[in-house]
Design brief:
The protein is mostly helical and 173 residues long. It contains eight helices and two strands, in the order H-H-H-H-E-E-H-H-H-H.
């Protein structure tokens, strides 16, 4: 079955197709999740959450984007959101996490991160979502367009306006 037909079948809620996706991607997603250091949850928890989200949001899948890419983005976003919630200070080297060692640097980084998050929270909801996907989760305009049904030009405009707003806030603080 080609990618488009497979995704259309998933979107219709076909259990056999979902099971096939689960069997095809489970081990790959586990290997991705194992690259992170988690304190509470296991890689299996993140993979399970990925498939839950895939099923619950299946109507948002795009037939023109490879399923691999969509599933990996879902998993990556779940992991990154979890890491952000844990307030870990991380530097992401393609799917590898390193925790800052210097306490002083960590405090400064935490402070700046907190301010940035508070400025991001002041943005309109759509700008907030797009800015976060691009700047914090490192998704390209094309990837964001695939996830949001917006044009790359609209995404660029949202990022421009959000960046301008945040820059202005930073200068005033």
């Amino acid at each position: 079955m080609d990618n488009r037909k497979f995704i259309l079948s998933l979107k219709k809620g076909n259990e056999a197709t979902f099971k096939e996706a689960y069997l095809n991607y489970y081990d790959k997603l586990i290997n991705i999740a194992k690259r992170f250091n988690f304190t509470v949850l296991t890689p299996q928890d993140f993979v399970q959450e990925t498939f839950l989200r895939l099923y619950n949001k299946r109507e948002l899948l795009h037939e023109d984007v490879l399923l691999d890419k969509q599933i990996f983005v879902i998993c990556k976003n779940i992991i990154l959101n979890h890491l952000n919630r844990e307030n870990k200070i991380v530097q992401l080297d393609p799917l590898h996490v390193v925790i800052e060692e210097e306490d002083n640097d960590t405090e400064i980084f935490e402070e700046r991160q907190e301010k940035l998050n508070s400025f991001i929270n002041l943005l309109p909801e759509q700008q907030q979502k797009i800015y976060t996907l691009h700047k914090l989760e490192n998704l390209s305009y094309k990837e964001i367009a695939a996830l949001t049904d917006l044009s790359e030009k609209t995404i660029a405009n949202h990022i421009y306006l959000a960046s301008k707003f945040i820059r202005k806030k930073v200068e005033n603080h």
